[in-house]
């Protein structure tokens, strides 16, 4: 066997090892989620109630995605990138109006849209949809779904992932933002909100607009609630636009952290296995040519 051929075979054999080393050197989001600790909302070493300036929507479009029908590009819901392969959205977004669950092939995930009617910078096919195991269409609560894409999101200046917050601030906290697209202009916006009590929705997070001229009627289901650059909630019940209170109801993401960890870890493992498989195919091909 020629020396050059031996070198090629050795490189292919070492390929899977290189992948494993890369995974070790760069911890996955699942590891970050697992290190999130549960802390009392009364703790104020991170969250403060000082006045904050209005947010720049361009800062929040990095982790925001829009879900569309793959066959006509019609908008379905919003979502947030929480790992290299996973989007978190509302579970009820994954159903047709007649009640059936959509198959993954029906949905595409788009990034980089400042206008809903413009072409996406990147679009990704969906590999799997996982509903929260306790979600029930007839009741409120656990309205969360994980959308796993086939490959990985392209990292860079236009895409980023959002970390889950360590805990939920108390009512009255005002360093929070809801992102989404304006229903009338189709423009992406970020609206400052304040957390409020909502005793009629236990286990949820409720918000109201922070500024008098602000509106959260822009937001569709599945869009994220972000406090101090951390994911706190996913929009479940949209506000009534002519309601002066404009109460918006979000699923508390912290309540489902174990479920998120399991699925993010599974998605990372699936991607690693796919890489090893491709290397093995290449190895067999080269050996057959010898």
UniProtKB/TrEMBL annotation:
Which PROSITE patterns does the entry link to? TRYPSIN_DOM (PS50240), TRYPSIN_HIS (PS00134)
GO MF annotations in UniProt: serine-type endopeptidase activity
* Compositional bias (Polar residues): 25-36
Q: Which UniProt keywords apply?
A: Disulfide bond, Hydrolase, Protease, Serine protease, Signal
- So which residues are the signal peptide here? 1-22
Q: Give the organism the record lists.
A: Exocentrus adspersus
Q: Where is the composition biased (Low complexity)?
A: 37-52
Which family, according to the similarity comment? Belongs to the peptidase S1 family.
Q: Does the keyword Signal apply?
A: yes
The alphabetized list of GO BP terms reads:
proteolysis
In Swiss-Prot or TrEMBL terms, this protein is called: Peptidase S1 domain-containing protein
Give the matching SUPFAM superfamilies. Answer: Trypsin-like serine proteases
Name of a matching Pfam family: Trypsin
PANTHER family per record: PEPTIDASE S1 DOMAIN-CONTAINING PROTEIN, POLYSERASE-RELATED
Residue ranges occupied by any Peptidase S1 domain in the UniProt entry: 63-265
Chain spans, region Disordered: 25-52
